[in-house]
């Protein structure tokens, strides 16, 4: 008998019971949450695809590592293990731990971003851009145009930087006004799309020519390395570790949320080669996070983080992780549901504008679609569209070309049977799409509004 997929490359040692609310109670729950899936109680969710950030299942070795926590306020042994692990895997000289990725973004932005500076990047990320703008900088999107076209499936590396756009920005504003270029590997809001090794080389060469730092957002760098291995010529016989080492050779530093490809529940870091940047970050981390030897993490968290970074390099692990996402995406494609193509590494992204063409973007089709999926099935997803994009400095909404709902797959958590249920729920929602109506804000926070905003039907 032909198999549609290989079984999970792990066995279950502990289980967490799930329950599904009756539909009437799901409707009440989403109404209490103001039609914002971030405000749902976890106990009311059946299958949680809100995020892959900190929602992953740790291994037995990581759990064993928790028992080896050195909770010294300064000089924790677990920090030195984490530091050496990052140095060995990525090759950076310095590591400053933080409680999660946005802590690293805050440090980097406070040190380098000033008013009238410009930070190019391959599509914005919400917290990254917020930190840049709060320090007076201006984010400039220099990703290739194809990244903004959801059904453009013949581009294998939609996360690539457009070198001409980047060079034009340098010529326009001056290299001295660009503190760094932020390269996401992979690009979340483009649909989990990877960046090719060739593009990383080109970005590095142009940046060095003009004296501009290259800083990676390396939250999902292992997924990016996997796509390089299976899609880019010359890398099929390279190990994930070898590909990762070459990737980071084209960077001067990186921010990371360990809650993704570190396979832990909390943690992050800012890494760099530059001594002066390290000294400034070490001083500032004390103000916002903690000592430079824990940065907002416990010793046991740092130990689990170090172990998780090593486990993530295993090819069988990352192959299964990406193939689970592809499995769900392909089931939706077969049913005619519009999604971002090619399928990314950490999530399937529904194209809400194509899913709900009768709802204008000003009425937040991705937000209402996420709410309707929960009503249909108890599955929690999240909006990645106009609400996530927010407003510019004049208060105008951005209206991005991509209006998406993200179905994010946690690592080592759900089986293919869970994904079958999710696919059936999305397809059932698609069949009744004409019944769905738009939303308006009842409460709009001034920044990162997708986290705590509230809505009601128009």
TrEMBL record:
Molecular-function GO terms, alphabetical: tyrosine phenol-lyase activity
Pfam families attached to this UniProt entry: Beta_elim_lyase
UniProt cross-references to Gene3D superfamilies, sorted A to Z: Aspartate Aminotransferase, domain 1 (3.90.1150.10), Type I PLP-dependent aspartate aminotransferase-like (Major domain) (3.40.640.10)
InterPro entries named among the record's database cross-references: ArAA_b-elim_lyase/Thr_aldolase (IPR001597), Beta-eliminating_lyase (IPR011166), PyrdxlP-dep_Trfase (IPR015424), PyrdxlP-dep_Trfase_major (IPR015421), PyrdxlP-dep_Trfase_small (IPR015422), Tryptophanase_CS (IPR018176), Tyr_phenol_ly (IPR013441)
Family matches, as HAMAP family: Tyr_phenol_lyase
Annotated family: Belongs to the beta-eliminating lyase family.
Protein name: Tyrosine phenol-lyase
Lineage of producing organism: Bacteria, Bacillati, Bacillota, Tissierellia, Tissierellales
Gene responsible for this protein: tpl
């Amino acid at each position: 008998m032909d198999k549609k997929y290989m079984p999970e490359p792990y066995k279950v040692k502990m289980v967490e019971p799930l329950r599904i609310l009756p539909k009437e109670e799901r409707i009440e729950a989403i109404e209490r949450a103001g039609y914002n899936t971030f405000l749902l109680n976890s106990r009311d969710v059946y299958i949680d695809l809100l995020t892959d950030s900190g929602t992953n299942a740790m291994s037995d070795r990581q759990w064993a590592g928790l028992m080896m926590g050195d909770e010294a306020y300064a000089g924790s042994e677990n920090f030195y293990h984490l530091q050496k692990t990052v140095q060995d895997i990525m090759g950076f000289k310095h590591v400053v731990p933080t409680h999660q990725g946005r802590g690293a973004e805050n440090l980097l932005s406070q040190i380098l971003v000033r008013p009238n500076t410009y930070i190019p990047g391959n599509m914005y990320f919400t917290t990254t851009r917020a930190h840049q703008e709060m320090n007076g900088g201006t984010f400039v999107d220099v990703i290739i145009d194809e990244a903004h076209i959801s059904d453009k499936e013949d581009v294998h590396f939609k996360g690539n930087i457009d070198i001409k756009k980047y060079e034009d920005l340098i010529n326009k504003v001056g290299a001295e006004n660009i503190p760094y270029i932020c390269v996401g590997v992979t690009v979340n809001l483009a649909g989990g799309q990877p960046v090719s090794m060739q593009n990383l080389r080109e970005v590095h060469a142009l940046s060095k020519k003009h004296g501009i730092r290259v800083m990676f957002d390396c939250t999902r760098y292992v997924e990016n390395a996997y796509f390089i291995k299976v899609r880019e010529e010359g890398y099929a016989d390279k190990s994930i570790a070898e590909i990762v080492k070459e990737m980071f050779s084209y960077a001067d530093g990186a921010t990371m949320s360990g809650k993704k490809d570190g396979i832990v529940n909390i943690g992050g870091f800012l890494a760099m080669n530059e001594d002066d940047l390290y000294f400034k970050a070490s001083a500032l981390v004390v103000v916002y996070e903690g000592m430079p030897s824990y940065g907002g993490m416990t010793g046991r968290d740092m130990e689990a983080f170090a172990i998780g970074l090593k486990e993530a390099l295993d090819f069988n692990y990352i192959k299964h992780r990406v193939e689970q996402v592809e499995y769900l995406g392909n089931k939706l494609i077969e049913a005619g549901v519009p999604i971002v193509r090619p399928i990314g590494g950490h999530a399937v992204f529904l194209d809400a504008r194509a899913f709900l063409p009768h709802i204008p973007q000003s009425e937040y089709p991705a937000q209402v679609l996420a709410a309707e999926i929960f009503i249909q099935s108890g599955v929690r997803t999240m909006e990645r569209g106009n609400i996530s994009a927010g407003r510019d400095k004049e208060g105008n909404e951005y209206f991005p070309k991509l209006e998406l709902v993200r179905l994010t797959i946690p690592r080592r958590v759900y089986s293919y049977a869970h994904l079958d249920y999710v696919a059936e729920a999305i397809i059932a929602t698609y069949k009744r799409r004409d019944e769905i109506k738009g939303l308006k804000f009842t409460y709009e926070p001034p920044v990162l509004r997708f986290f705590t905003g509230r809505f009601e039907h128009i």
